[in-house]
Amino acid sequence: MNIELSAEASEYGAAALRAFESAGGDALVESAERDPCGRDRLVAPVFEGLGAWDLEPRKNSDELEAAAALCRSAGHWAVPYPVAERLSRPTDLDVDGLLVIADSNPAAAVSDLDLRWAAVTLAGQRAVATVRSTSESPRTTAFVAPLELESLDAGGAADVALGLVLPCWTLLGMLDRALALTRTHVLLREQFGRPLAQLQGVQFQLTDAEVERSGVEVLAKYALWSVEAGHDEAVDDALALRLAAIEAADVVFRVAHQLHGATGFCDETTLSWLSRYSLPLRRLPFGLSATNAALTARLGRRGLTGLFTDEVVAP
Questions:
Q1: Number of structural domains found in the chain
Q2: What CATH code is carried by the domain that includes residue 286?
Q3: Which end of the chain is more exposed for a tag (fewer CB within 10 A), N or C?
Q4: 57-106 per-position pLDDT tens digit
Q5: pTM score, two decimals?
């Protein structure tokens, strides 16, 4: 088992980071919020230059890893576009992307985009999704809009794992950036005549946050490998990743906001934008409690296979 991304995928992710920075970096999400209808045009040249939509993550393991790296880079800059959802698109439907949805009140962060969507529930029920218009500002919705569904078939079990895993890579990129911003902040700000970073309490908080973030990184690589290998447990691994990612996001953003203080909630601070636009990834298709319940229901007393054993049996 090798869960590390290939050198080519890592380099592709680095190239994507540079491309997003050259296109505006942190200003991308600010521009999209001011002009929601123009957010597709805003980032389309970047994706075209990267050949993003030519990737076939369902057919090629190298391209699956490249897709994950691209999602992580998009998360780093809070790119205002459903990158993971487009990369998860089914190959047997004439659509532009895939949305994993809840059984009730389906919604996704896909407003103001002229795209065709397929949707799939955790049980594998597929549908064609139409985005309902909303007059609310993306400042309060983060581009989330309700969906209308036209049922298709129940053959989407293979879609679920990929549709859950790639958005977690986007969230991982956001956690990377939140911690990087916080480290920079505590190195620059002083209290009692020395940088905040030298205070033991601050060091403990940052350590706790980094442990959570690094744990998600390992699980993200494992879940991606599970999808790539076609494991029967791939959906279980994807749900376990999502659960860990949501829990880690709660810790990382709490620590980041605490150490930034009041400025962390002001739009002059990048952390504010990053935190706000992480919420759809943390809440949709289901939040912490619902993800925990779904994973528990699937596993029963069987347990996860995991990284280190062939089988884990619950006592």
A1: 1
A2: 1.20.140.10
A3: C
A4: 999 999 999 999 999 999 999 999 999 999 999 998 999 999 999 999 99
A5: 0.93
